[in-house]
Amino acid sequence: MEDFECDDFEKTLKVIVVGNGNAGKTSMTTRYAKGRYTGTYKKTIGVDFMEKTVELRDLGETINLMIWDTAGQEEFDTLTSRYYKGAGAVIYVFSTVDRASFDDLPKWRRKVEEECGQICSVLVQNKIDLEDDAKMTRDEVEDMADFLSMRLYRSCVQDNINVGEVFRYLCRRFLKSGDDGDEMVHAVTDISTLSQTVKPADISRYPPSPEPHTKREISDISDIESDRTSTAAPSPTSQTCLGKSFPPSPPTIINRECDSDSGDDAAPDSPRRSRK
């Protein structure tokens, strides 16, 4: 009988995408898995499920992603929380133009940790093309990321800014956690898939913060090679948010993505205003 080693088996990662309704979760997962933008808001009932295979060539690794896009409305809480189990990574999404989606982030983290424990996590500020109408300041966003101890990505799904980078970052964190044993990582059943890559849009309009952030790495234009995880405590300003304490009281989509370089992708023209 032939002997098998761990490396003979494909790695599979279940990723859940959580956050308030209308934050852009479905648009984000559809953009990444299908390579297209859905401009019309359609409420997710329960969960949507998509698949994609990611090749990290510099690491010589391939990961099969199972992406679960969950409903953000409270009426679906009981249903959606059942689908958190077995997740190895989570994306927390909030909207630049929706203050409640920002304030509710600690609540979402508690829900995920109740079902999954400590898993690979990332914070995404979506709809940065609507920054003129932002309901929170840059400092508040960075303080929230510090409070949650998560890497922050600022994204625009319509123009494909920092969408693929978010998922590739989680893949790398997943692999690193498995090697180091410093985080609880769950794997789920193997699923084989194919691929499609979409060119990202212009990221020049969204430069990094002018001053370096000493407590935690902020990824406006991502450096996905860095896998540092912050353990710093939140600044005093991160303790409150609008006067509230932190935290406040299928058909299968088949795709393959090749990560041909270390992560930064090139880009087209100026972003359009988006509703997703």
From TrEMBL:
The keyword Nucleotide-binding applies. Residues 199-276 are annotated as: Disordered. GO terms for molecular function: GTP binding; GTPase activity. Gene3D superfamilies: P-loop containing nucleotide triphosphate hydrolases. Residues 229-238 have a biased composition (Low complexity). Keywords: GTP-binding, Nucleotide-binding. Pfam families: Ras (PF00071). This is Uncharacterized protein. It comes from Phytophthora sojae (strain P6497). The lineage of its organism: Eukaryota, Sar, Stramenopiles, Oomycota, Peronosporomycetes.
